[in-house]
């Protein structure tokens, strides 16, 4: 039996190719697309949910609306896959409670690329043996969210391993303290926003005598994110509550 998929952000950079991939899949059925323009089936998420006929709601919209969309989809009885940035750790805790109460699953990832998920997994393993690290977050000069969802998810995952040791003068630096980056779940994250970048995430782990750089470089195409999103769509009906990170589907 096919899984019926409703996609919000259906004409966007990732949503458009995802619509094509769902239509092409033998085990999936497109229940509709939501976008404010571009010939999508529905103009609003509320309209799409009221129409019914979907099993899984996929959100590739924006940080400004993603939380309301996910809340509405869970209230309508759908499982949810979240590819949009902007949800905080507190948001996910509240969504986990709501999803469990509804008996539904939510799979969310700051990045549905298989290689980005591998970075997350590798960094988490390395952090078990290292006390110092920081994250560099590269994005287009037009990208509004800082840090990116990928870098935020990485920092929060590393916090589950341990808190990194601060630099010697993090509390009494000479100069603007902002130059040391933002504190995200205990990890220093530095966001660069420059032309020619799409999205790149790098974590540098260090000991007194060596360093490990783990870096994911995204290209200009949405193709790397499609396979991971399809995997989440197929797996989310088996889930109750929130799972964060594609790596947890790939590596357990």
TrEMBL record:
InterPro entries referenced in this protein's UniProt entry, alphabetically: DapB_C, DapB_N, DHDPR_bac, NAD(P)-bd_dom_sf
Question: GO MF terms on file?
Answer: 4-hydroxy-tetrahydrodipicolinate reductase
User: Which EC class, in a word?
Assistant: oxidoreductase
- For this protein, the Enzyme Commission number is 1.17.1.8
Task: Spell out where the chain crosses the membrane.
Answer: none
Any one GO cellular component localisation term in the record? cytosol
For this UniProt record, the keywords arranged alphabetically read as follows:
Amino-acid biosynthesis, Diaminopimelate biosynthesis, Lysine biosynthesis, NAD, NADP, Oxidoreductase
Q: Which Pfam families match?
A: DapB_C (PF05173), DapB_N (PF01113)
Q: Cite the Dihydrodipicolinate reductase N-terminal domain residue spans from the record.
A: 3-112
What range(s) does the Dihydrodipicolinate reductase C-terminal domain occupy?
120-241
Q: What processes in GO biological process is this protein linked to? A: diaminopimelate biosynthetic process; lysine biosynthetic process via diaminopimelate
Catalysed reaction per UniProt? (S)-2,3,4,5-tetrahydrodipicolinate + NAD(+) + H2O = (2S,4S)-4-hydroxy-2,3,4,5-tetrahydrodipicolinate + NADH + H(+); (S)-2,3,4,5-tetrahydrodipicolinate + NADP(+) + H2O = (2S,4S)-4-hydroxy-2,3,4,5-tetrahydrodipicolinate + NADPH + H(+)
Pathway(s) per entry:
Amino-acid biosynthesis; L-lysine biosynthesis via DAP pathway; (S)-tetrahydrodipicolinate from L-aspartate: step 4/4
- Record carries keyword NADP: yes
For this protein, the record's SUPFAM superfamilies field holds: Glyceraldehyde-3-phosphate dehydrogenase-like, C-terminal domain, NAD(P)-binding Rossmann-fold domains
Family, per entry: Belongs to the DapB family.
| Name of the molecule in the record | 4-hydroxy-tetrahydrodipicolinate reductase
Name the source organism.
Solirubrobacter phytolaccae
Q: What is the lineage of its organism?
A: Bacteria, Bacillati, Actinomycetota, Thermoleophilia, Solirubrobacterales
């Amino acid at each position: 039996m096919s899984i019926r998929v409703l996609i919000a952000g259906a004409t966007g950079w990732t949503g458009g190719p995802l619509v094509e991939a769902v239509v092409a899949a033998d085990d999936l059925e497109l229940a509709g697309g939501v976008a404010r323009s571009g010939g999508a089936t529905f103009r609003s998420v509320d309209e799409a949910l009221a129409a019914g006929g979907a099993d899984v709601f996929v959100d590739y919209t924006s940080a400004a609306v993603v939380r309301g969309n996910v809340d509405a989809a869970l209230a309508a009885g759908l499982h949810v896959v979240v590819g949009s940035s902007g949800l905080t750790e507190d948001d996910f805790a509240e969504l986990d409670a709501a999803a469990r109460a509804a008996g539904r699953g939510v799979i969310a990832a700051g990045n549905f690329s298989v290689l980005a998920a591998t970075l997350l997994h590798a960094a988490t393993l390395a952090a078990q043996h290292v006390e110092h690290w920081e994250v560099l977050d590269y994005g287009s000069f037009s990208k509004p969210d800082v840090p990116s969802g990928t870098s935020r998810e990485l920092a929060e995952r590393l916090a589950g391993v341990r808190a990194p040791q601060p630099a010697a003068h993090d509390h009494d630096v000479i100069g603007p303290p902002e130059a040391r980056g933002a504190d995200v779940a205990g990890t220093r994250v530095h966001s660069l926003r420059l032309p020619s970048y799409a999205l790149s995430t790098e974590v540098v782990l260090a000991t007194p005598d060596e360093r490990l750089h783990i870096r994911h470089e995204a290209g200009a195409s949405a193709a790397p994110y499609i396979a991971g999103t399809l995997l989440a769509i197929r797996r989310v009906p088996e889930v109750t509550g929130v799972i964060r990170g594609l790596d947890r589907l790939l590596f357990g």
